């Protein structure tokens, strides 16, 4: 019996060009974004705004910070409801709770996207939707925006898994009022920790820049709105420090230039795995819509019979293939399910619970080659045969 031996959590090295830029920053000692001139952070903001077609970008300390900053800038108050996906990861309800607000969880579908029927039922319970493109699955964005626009609900997009992705040619993060991205090690660019925010709205951009802790140096943001816009918000925004530093921006700039190439490399691996998994008994791949240009940095399968899923996951694990099972009792590793968030008022979400019980998830590291994907495919097919056939 063959066993897979590569780790599922290994990253590629940081590009040499990025390392050289980081070393230069350290030699100069100017690691604070507002002390550096010229600033890598400001340049990163200008470059990311251009890349996504946004008027404004802001680099911050993490993806979670980006989401919290967006909610604060939108004026979400303690006690307010904020709509979000019932299937997402802990930083999303965490960012809502961090501003004292209350997650209102919306069911997801078997395609792992927000259930628009449940959204239509719940849309009046909040003024903001924190839409999580969980595991890179993008919902029908025009349909979602129509529901939210009609109800006056502002959309913030959590693009932690969709940096470089698009729906109908329009980038993920550019449909709602604000797009939030993570540059944390396990996402599509790697600065250890880090986040990016985009918006077209100058008032939101100014508020978020002030919130992130810009003192009187806010004009040095790489895409700063005019002084008159800042003047409207200056004294009103508390400093909730969460800036990005020069070192992180220095190593992110070359990575962002490579994003499309990396996305294609991810998708080559994703397609190889998907092709192999179609032969696995008892397991179904999630079909990707035509309009969705995704980045296949992870892959999910649904089991027809959740009763045998534990045996399948254990069988694969014994042969070096590490599935995460979202239906497991307790959160393990980076998985999480809504009933693990005990600070969130309990929700009745039968549809989501039924899906999570059948859902498994595999990371697709770029350190795997196509032969690795083929081997994983063979192991999964043979273990599925044992567990489900
Ligand atoms: C990683 C992640 C975030 C936020 O990431 P940080 O670790 O705070 O940078 C947000 N949403 C999802 C779905 C994530 O996986």
Automatic annotation (TrEMBL):
GO terms for molecular function: transaminase activity. Keywords: Aminotransferase, Pyridoxal phosphate, Transferase. SUPFAM superfamilies: PLP-dependent transferases (SSF53383). Belongs to the DegT/DnrJ/EryC1 family. This is Aminotransferase DegT. It comes from Jannaschia pagri.
């Amino acid at each position: 019996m063959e066993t897979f031996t590569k780790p599922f959590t290994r990253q590629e090295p940081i590009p040499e060009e990025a390392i050289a830029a980081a070393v230069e920053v350290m030699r100069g000692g100017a690691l604070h974004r507002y002390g550096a001139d010229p600033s890598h952070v400001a340049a990163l903001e200008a470059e990311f705004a251009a890349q996504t077609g946004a008027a404004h970008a802001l680099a911050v300390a993490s993806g979670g910070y980006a989401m919290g900053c967006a909610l604060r800038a939108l004026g979400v108050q303690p006690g307010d409801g904020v709509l979000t996906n019932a299937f997402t990861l802990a930083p999303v309800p965490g960012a809502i709770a961090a501003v004292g607000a209350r997650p209102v969880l919306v069911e997801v579908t078997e395609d792992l996207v927000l259930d628009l029927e449940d959204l239509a039922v719940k849309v009046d319970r909040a003024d903001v939707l924190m839409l999580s493109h969980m595991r890179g699955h993008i919902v029908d964005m025009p349909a979602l925006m129509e529901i939210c626009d009609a109800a006056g609900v502002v959309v913030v997009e959590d693009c932690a898994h969709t940096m470089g992705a698009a729906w109908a040619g329009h980038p993920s993060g550019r449909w709602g009022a604000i797009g939030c991205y993570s540059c944390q090690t396990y996402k599509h660019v790697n600065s250890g920790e880090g986040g990016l925010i985009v918006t077209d709205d100058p008032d939101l951009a100014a508020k978020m820049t002030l919130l992130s802790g810009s003192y009187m140096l806010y004009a040095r943001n790489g895409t700063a709105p005019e002084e008159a816009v800042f003047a409207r918000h200056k004294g009103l925004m508390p400093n909730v420090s969460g800036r990005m530093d020069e070192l992180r921006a220095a190593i992110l700039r070359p990575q962002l230039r490579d994003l499309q190439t990396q996305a294609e490399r991810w998708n080559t691996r994703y397609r190889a795995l998907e092709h192999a998994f179609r032969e696995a008994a008892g397991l179904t791949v999630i079909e990707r819509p035509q309009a969705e240009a995704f980045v296949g940095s992870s892959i999910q399968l649904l089991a027809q019979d959740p009763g045998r899923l534990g045996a399948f996951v254990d069988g694969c694990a014994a042969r070096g293939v590490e599935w995460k099972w979202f239906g497991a009792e307790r959160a393990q590793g980076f998985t999480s399910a809504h009933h693990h968030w005990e600070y969130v008022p309990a929700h009745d979400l039968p549809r989501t619970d039924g899906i999570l019980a059948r859902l498994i998830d595999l990371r697709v590291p770029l350190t795997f080659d196509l032969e690795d994907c083929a081997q994983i495919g063979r192991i999964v097919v043979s273990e599925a045969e044992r567990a489900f056939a």
